[in-house]
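[Meeting: bench + compute handoff]

Bench side (C.D.) handed over the final construct sequence. Compute side (W.E.) agreed to return the predicted structure before the next meeting so the bench team could plan truncations. Sequence as handed over:
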Amino acid sequence: MSGEFKGDSADPLDAPRLGESPNVNADEPLRGTPVTLRRDEFCISRSGGQETCVRYAEIVHLATSNRGLSVSTEKKAVDIRREGFSEPAAVDFLVDRLRGRIASLPDGGTTLSRMAEIDRLAMRRRPKLATYCFAALCLAAYWIQWSDPFASNVGSFAPALFSLGEYWRVVSSNLLHNMVLFPFHLGLNLLCVLMFGFLTERAIGSLRTVVVMGVSGLAAMLASAMMGYSEVLGASGVAAGLAGALVSIEMGGGKQLPAWWRIPRRLFIAALLLQVGFDFFLPFVAGAAHLGGFLAGFLSSRGMLQSALRLRPPGPLARGMAFAVVAALVWSVISAAPLLERDPVALENHGLRQLQVWDSTPYRDNELAWRMLTESTPTEMGADVALALAERAADRTGWQNPDVLDTLAEALFTVGDQWAALRVIDQAILMTGGVDYFVQQRRRFTGEREAADRPDPPAAPWQPGVPPEMSPGYIPQDDEAVSI
């Protein structure tokens, strides 16, 4: 009958237990299973007459689940699906037989003791706090970006502004995403963070995962700066760091993991190589950030792996680094908040730093000048800074963009140069064929309309003060933010 078991007993409940001495020299096909036990190995019958064989000396863990049996070796995991067993009890019967063969090896007792340690690791339930919190922060940051597009400019990693003192950008940029590529950019990064984060956090715990995320995010942005990217934002540097941690966990501690925690090495490495190909061929992807994050995640997890797998609590260094990551996050929010609140002094200082960035785009200069003039009450110095930004934007657009000219006219009017403001707004009126918005702006400058009664901006293609990426028909410039 198909459900019969070949062994010391036809009943799997009476199968030999540890301590008995099975005949290890004879081949033993186990009916009801796709397995044949041989002297030094067991073989699994596959479709097409193929066999997969595993030496008993290479087995480091055995794990059963609803899906079947997973056999972990020093280099990989081999799965035997439950469909291959004729009866549910056949899985446990096979496990008993394999344990008996392992026990008969010279160091079999040591191997079984290590299996018991791995079982204890598998039974420990670790909440995925770090992964969930990071995903929640990315979603919160996206909501802020959606509510206030200026947040993207305040928080993205711009190496030039970072070097001038806006240090919060190296942290905040890891939480922001490209609004033009929504939902692809945010969705793909969150998918990778959740997938890699769950697997990493399961093995090394929440606190150590915070360290991996923090170090990876920092390394990703610094690698971007070294490659000369002018502006970067996105969480894939952190995702790459978690992928690096997974490689480190598998390569450095795979034989200490429960069988169902193992990842297929070849498939995973092939996927990483495919990602490298995308990084190379897609110009808007910051490949250097991915590489920096991956290496940082690999190395940082390497130093914490063994203590995590032995269920030891994080040491002082790991705890200190995790605290530093959280503190840096809080500090970055506090540092960026005045700009988001349109504090005049903060905008003025930011504008002064922006003027020192020689390769700043005219769109970025124009946007900042407009926000300084219309979304806050600028100081006298702040108005002069906004005027300088607007003049540079006008020069770099050849005085051919009515939106930029409108900002320049607003700046001239704010500093008290009424006649210069009229000359500039007249040029914008002429260029647009008399769009009513610019005409009403001129009436403000002549006093025919209250100075505080600013008209509503026109529809596409020009929307004064709105970032170009939010304008209909906008085509991204080559030197704008790179997504990671």
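W.E. noted at the follow-up: Residues 344-483 form a domain with the Serine Threonine Protein Phosphatase 5, Tetratricopeptide repeat fold (CATH 1.25.40). C.D. will use this when planning the next construct.
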